[in-house]
Amino acid sequence: MSDAPRALSSRRQFLATTAAATMAASVPYTFTASRASAQSSAKPLRFALIGVGGNGTRTSPVGKKFADLVALCDVDANHLADGNELLCDGKADLYADYREVLDRDDIDLVQISTPDHWHTKILIEAMRAGKDAYCEKPLTLTIDEGKMIRKVQQETGRVVQVGTQQRSSFNLFNKALAVISDGRIGKLKKITVGIDAGGWSPEIPTAEVPEGLDWDRWLGPTPKMQFRYLADAKRNYTNGHTHFRWWYEHSGGKLTDWGAHHIDIAMLGIEAAGQNSDPISVGGTAKHDVEFKDGMPLQHDRYNTARAFDLNVHFADGDVVMNVRHDVDNGILFEGELGRIFVNRGKLTGKAIEELKANPLPEEAIAKVYRGMPMVGNDRDAHWANLIHSIEHRTLPISDVHSHMKMLNVCHLAGICCRLGRTIHWDQATEQITGDDLAASMMSRPYREGYEIGS
């Protein structure tokens, strides 16, 4: 199959339309699901789901409110069969190879819900094939992969929405950002990001690959390894499917899983306060259940990502520090010179929030944070509606690859810090780790033969 890109809009045109749309979006607009698909034409967008198990099955029903789901792709035949019945009444076109999906000219959009280690390769090839995309977080497995994605997005002008739907949460996270933007808690001094502890497992023995699963294809760009599986009375453990998050070969553990959500909002809070969010260092401590040498796990028979962590991120602003830890409530605590607020997916609290009844936020503070995003149902609905609007108007979505990359780099730096057990220093201007050759080498990863980017 050819990797040659189709005719795509230039980056200059893309930025021009983005600038125009940003000016037009000075106040929030209402964008209902019934209007989403037909905003600019009577023909709905058609999308394919690549990665049907787990999160793909949970989130694609939201996409179906805004576009037609016509194709499913997975390396596990069981996921394909189950997903087809659950999502498409048995009527979807089914594929084991995502490249066949990308070759279809009648598919406008792909939702990428594979394990993390596949995101970059599939997304880059999708953009080169002329597809817009919704890609689950975290966008990448390494820092350098973000640079690859950014380059291809600039070359192709494709619209890519990253699945950090907290950016589209109006009553919680965006309200918190608006309160900060309006100066209600003053200049930020400290942010505490609570992320739950990482996964634990006993020793997991090798096992027969389940019937229907193409294990070699599931591994894709990552190193060749044997399939492992163990079940006890309470749960099962494996190095495949939904448990991939606990293996550095496939993911970054909790720091890229929930960090992609909460560190994202924390850094947006720094920007909302008018302070510099450029990271300069990440240091602290972490606990793993396996031994490491030069940042690489020495055991491969149990989960190897960080189970516990207490990390401090310093920024160019100099006045604010972000503490990321596992042993506090899940959420984000913003502490400023005038007060503090706490936000997570269930609540938004603090004196500044209580005072909103008597002293509501001005429209300009709301508009500054919401950036004209559609106010639709819950955060997932709003996130998809924003994507569809961005596709139809060729504008940057609320969770674009450029802003996501800056935040995700902090998550990756935190992971490198945990694996090496030392402070990592970062130059935002050059996007390079400084003064540590071994740490810098971990900004990229080798790809298994036949699964290189672009192959």
From TrEMBL:
- GO terms of molecular function: inositol 2-dehydrogenase (NAD+) activity; nucleotide binding
Out of the domains of life, which is the source?
Bacteria
| Matches recorded under PROSITE patterns | TAT (PS51318)
Query: Which InterPro entries does the protein's record reference?
Result: Gfo/Idh/MocA-like_OxRdtase_N, Gfo/Idh/MocA_oxidrdct_glycsds, Gfo/Idh/MocA_OxRdtase_bact_C, NAD(P)-bd_dom_sf, TAT_signal
Domain Gfo/Idh/MocA-like oxidoreductase N-terminal residues, every copy: 45-163
The record places domain Gfo/Idh/MocA-like oxidoreductase bacterial type C-terminal at 203-452
Q: Which residues cross the membrane?
A: none
PANTHER family from the UniProt entry: BCDNA.GH03377, OXIDOREDUCTASE FAMILY PROTEIN
Q: What is this protein called?
A: Inositol 2-dehydrogenase
Q: Which organism is it from?
A: Rubripirellula amarantea
